[in-house]
Each structure stands twice: as structure tokens, then as C-alpha cells.
Amino acid sequence: MAKRGREFVAAFGALLRTRRLPPLFCEAWTFGACLALAAAAAAALPAPPPAAPGGAAPGAAAPPASSSPRRAECAAQRPLCCAAVN
């Protein structure tokens, strides 16, 4: 989903620029589309598993918020969305 979305943003952003629209409009549309794409990708990820009953062991560090490998991959690709269209 993220890859197809990024390709769409790049293609449609290029189309907007060929229509000679104001550069700030094109930039604002691209930025908004990238934010919407990132939100949709994050919403598509599975929720993290619930904590064990009784909580973590005393002294144990809490896992990072992005402990899911898929979530980390998505976060790593977010900057690519906007970089691909500039």
C-alpha cells in the first residue's frame, strides 16, 4: 500500500507541476498527501499485543513503541514518500 501510494503521490505531483499551478500549492498538496499516506499506513498495521497480566517484571525495561518489525519498516520509509516527489 505504501509503495503504490508513494508512486501515486509522485505521479500526481508531477502532473500538478506540468499544469503550471503555483509551486506552493503543489508543495502543500504533496505534503498533505504524504501525511495522509503515512497515517493510512500506520492505521493498517496490527495493534501491539496487550501487556501480560500483572505488568512487566520488576526492573524490566518497557519495549519501544515501535517494537513491531513492520511498524519500524513503515517508519523508516515515511521520509521516502516526500523525498520521491521533490
Q: Based on DSSP secondary structure assignment, what is the total number of beta strands?
A: 0
Mean pLDDT: 76
Class from helix and strand fractions: mainly alpha
- What pattern of helices and strands is seen along the backbone? HHH
Morphology = elongated
Kindly report how far apart the N and C termini lie: 20 Å
| Strand proportion | under 5%
Low-confidence stretches: none
Helix run count: 3
Assign a percent range to the helix content. Answer: 55-70%
Rg calc: 18 Å
Largest sheet descriptor: none
Features:
mainly alpha, elongated, 65% helix, 86 residues, 3 helices
Produce a short descriptive summary:
With 86 residues, the chain is an all-alpha fold.
Description:
This protein is mostly helical and 86 residues long. It has a domain at 1-45 and 74-86. The protein is 65% helix and 0% strand. The protein has three helices and no strands. It has helices spanning 2-18, 23-44, 69-85. α1 packs antiparallel against α2 (23-44), α1 (2-18) packs parallel to α3 and α2 packs antiparallel against α3 (69-85). The two termini are 20 Å apart.
